[in-house]
Design a protein that fits this description.
The protein is mainly α. About 65% of the residues lie in helices and about 0% in strands.
Amino acid sequence: PGPPPFPVATAPPPPLTPAVSAHMLKIARRADDSEEAAAAVAETALRGTDGWDGCEKNSAAEARRIVDAVRFINANFASPCTLDALADVASMSRFRFARRFRAVTGETANQYVLNRRLSAAAARLAATRTPVLEIAYDVGFNDLSYFYARFKAAFGCAPGAWRGAQR
């Protein structure tokens, strides 16, 4: 009999397993983008079924609805922008909205809201002497440590240090 087909006793995981596992962890941990992760898992499951061509295009009408949702986020980023509320603005189901938003903008709705909040915080830090805590709450963050972590990840330093570098 020749050598075993695999060096271990089990077959390697399918190529989608790491991506699905990462999404499932987000869902289990109730991460901020767990709703988008659920939509991604559902899409992955659909891709595995017969009849899914994977070539769905964004119609002009859907793209306009996504732009409406982006405008809504830009006007209301400091308020909770849930996937359900944004899907309602776009007149789409949550699942379809999550897929279309990412296809049109290149990022999830949650990422877009987060980036919009961080951008507003950075602008206020540079333009005012308002305390960091107040700015964080004003732009929609409810947890200061989360704000610091996200700000540092996006700008490479803490908000106070970034403010100092802008002066």
